Structure formats: C-alpha cells, structure tokens
Amino acid sequence: MASNRTYLSPADVPPVIPVFPLSGALLLPRAELPLNIFEPRYLQMVDDALSGARLIGIVQPDETAPEVSEGPAVFRVGCLGRLTQFRETENGRYHIHLTGICRFRILEEVDGHTAYRQFRVETAPYEADFQPGAEQEAEVDRPALFKALAAFLEANQLEADWEGIQQAGTETLVNALSVMSPYGTLEKQALLEAETLKARADMLVAITQMMLARMPGDGEGSLQ
Fold it and tell me: What is the C-alpha to C-alpha distance for residues 161 and 134, in angstroms, rounded to an integer?
C-alpha cells in the first residue's frame, strides 16, 4: 500500500487521475464523501488507488451533453479525493470514504487501459483549495445559514445536534451542508464551482429559500 503522502499544492497531484462519474455526488475540499462500491470496474479502481496514490476524482455526468464513446459526458469540473477509509464487506463490496483535496478541471480523457475512466486534469486554477479557508470564513453569513438549515429541518420534520452544528467551523459547516444537501445535479455542480466559500454559502442559502418557496401549503415548505 502506498505511503501516507500529503497533497499541499498542484505540483503534488499527478496529471492523470482515475475518475468516478457519479450523478448527485458532491465532494469538496476537506469534506468527506462516503461511497458504497460494488461494480467490478470501480472495485478495481479502488484496488489500484490503494496500491498507488490513493486518489480518486469525483465528477458528475452531464446529462445535457451527448454521450461520448467511453461513456456518459461529464462536467469539466470535479473534485479530487484521497481514500482515507476503507472496509470490505462479506459480499465483496467496498465501503470507502474520500476526503476532498482540491477541485480540478478536465483537460482530456486518456486511454489508461483500465475498465474505469481516467482523465488528464489541471488543479492550478484551484490552488487556494489546498489551504483551509480561514480567511474567507469571516465573510460567511452564519446566521443566514443556520436559518436556512432550521427551515429545512422543520419542513422535513428532522432533528439535529444544534450544539455540534454551532460549534463547527464555518468552512466545515458550509461544505458538509453542501455535500449532504438533497439537491439535483445542476445545483450541486453550481455549489462545487462556486469561486469562494462565501459564494458557496450564499448559493446554499439561496437554493434553500427557492426550494422552500416552491413547497405547497403554508409557505415554509421543504427542500425536496
């Protein structure tokens, strides 16, 4: 198994990465994405990642674009994750967690002679992703974020650990809520491509408000 190397800048990222196209999935820097792997080609991808750089890119299929010979067309921006948790089940499935490192932009698909797809990517446009967004956290409207979350929970009759939520760092909160949000492909892609943490937080609040406004009934609504 590969050593526990760290990824601190674009120079640390290999130019070609394995990519898992997954609709509705969102991975963001320093956020976690749990995945249940069962298709043979993706089981092989995880095996190869474990024995190599432990890197897997997550990207959403672009259903508005024509399919290419290798499979569904994908959006040009995804997020690179490091495989940080791994468990094999009795029926041969893998339960893994990816921890986001940085976003990437796809340059081209390459023939890696594997059942899974591989792409040449660049991460330099997202160099800021390699560092925590502490400087941006002060710009985020936390009260607006909490209000939107409270409305979502009430509309869906859900409970949450408010003490834990309020103690979470702003970047952790914004990205975790974005990852767990029940939005569609286009909304999640917009959250991924938001230029700054503040822009992502503002977008998350705006999408929540729009979804709630569409709810029938008393106007409080639901996100779904």
Answer: 23
